[in-house]
Amino acid sequence: MDESSKVLITGGTGSFGSTMLNHLAQLNISEIRVFSRDEKKQEDLRIKYNNPKLNFVIGDVRDRDSITAAMDGIDYVFQAAALKQVPSCEFYPLEAIKTNILGSENVLEAAITNKVKKLVVLSTDKAVYPINTMGMTKALMEKLAISKARDPRLINYGGVFTATRYGNVMASRGSIIPLFVKQAKENQPLTITDPEMTRFMMSLPQSVDLVLHAFNHGEPGDTFVQKSPAATILTLAETIKEMFSSSSEIKIIGPRHGEKLFEVLCGTEEMAKAEDQGDFYRIPADLRDMNYSSFRNDNARSSASFKEYNSHNTERLDHDGLKKLLLSLEYIKSEI
């Protein structure tokens, strides 16, 4: 990006969007457009930043006309608009389809129409071997982004569309950490689903780091994941209880609709072709056409010798490690 760059964030008032906005607002770029449906959050951000580079646009990714108009003259797009809550997507799957699949298709098409140079879509570990609606819709969003990487219209003008996939973003809106903190501070039972359930632990700034890595290093159709530690839900609840000196009991309530015991960031088949980039894995897209007989790859690796990368086999945080990570969060600092 340079001083003439114009950037659009869809879902720009959400947890990720507002964190990315904070990063971009510190750069010497021409314009940042924040696209979302939430006029109250837009007004709050407008007052907070009071920055003439920021342009707030009311609209919905479900409406192709509104997102196409909002993208006029834009160089770079971060597609963060989504329905992200697993239970709500389970109860209202068609709504998840409308936003996460059809809405994302509108964003991708609008980007091609406006000849956007780079676009990064934000996905989730739940898209790998999905068992819930949120994961299924995000998996199809990834497929849409990869299919556009093969699109002659994008190839002709040299656009690059990539995807990122990350796990649980700590203290994001509607996630488990704010709930545990509230319960601990009010001495209510800390309600956990399954004590052995594991989740990747990533901060909001780290999620921005992942997206920027994809932005800076991605080739058409690439998917990037960031290596992250994990913890059990029981360890998380016990650590928060200790940090807030709470006498709350820990109550097991059982898994919610569509929840997995552990999350997967890279499937077995993906690990067979993944490139280890230190803190990240790059999963290149298969950009062949359907004339498979005309292709040959003597270096292809069988997936049989690879293991998926999941929250059960990654680095496991104990109470001390998790406490250190939690104390790095601005949200936790403000609550203690």
Describe this structure in words.
The chain is an alpha/beta fold and 336 residues long. It has a single domain (1-169, 203-227, 265-310), classed as 3-Layer(aba) Sandwich (Rossmann fold). Helix content is 39%, strand content 18%. The chain has a nine-stranded mixed beta sheet with strand order 3-2-1-4-5-6-9-14-13, with helices on both faces. A two-stranded parallel sheet has the order 7-11. The protein starts with 5 loop residues before the first strand and ends with a helix.
Mean pLDDT across every amino acid position = 93
Main pleated sheet: 9 strands, mixed
Rg (CA only): 20 Å
CATH domain class name? Alpha Beta
The helix/strand series, from N terminus to C terminus, equals EHEHEHEHHEHHEHEEHEEHEEHEEEHH
Helix share bin:
25-40%
Q: Count the beta strands.
A: 15
Shape from CA axes?
Answer: globular
Describe the structure concisely:
The chain is of the alpha/beta class and 336 residues long. Helix content is 39%, strand content 18%. It is built from 13 helices and 15 strands.
Secondary-structure topology with pairs:
Elements: E1 6-10, H1 15-24, E2 31-36, H2 39-49, E3 54-58, H3 64-70, E4 76-79, H4 86-91, H5 93-113, E5 118-124, H6 133-149, H7 152-157, E6 160-166, H8 176-185, E7 190-192, E8 198-200, H9 204-217, E9 223-226, E10 230-232, H10 233-243, E11 250-252, E12 264-266, H11 268-271, E13 275-276, E14 280-283, E15 309-310, H12 319-326, H13 330-335
Parallel strand pairs: 1-2, 1-4, 2-3, 4-5, 5-6, 6-9, 7-11
Antiparallel strand pairs: 8-10, 9-14, 12-15, 13-14
Helix pairs in contact: 1-9, 3-5, 5-6, 8-10, 10-12
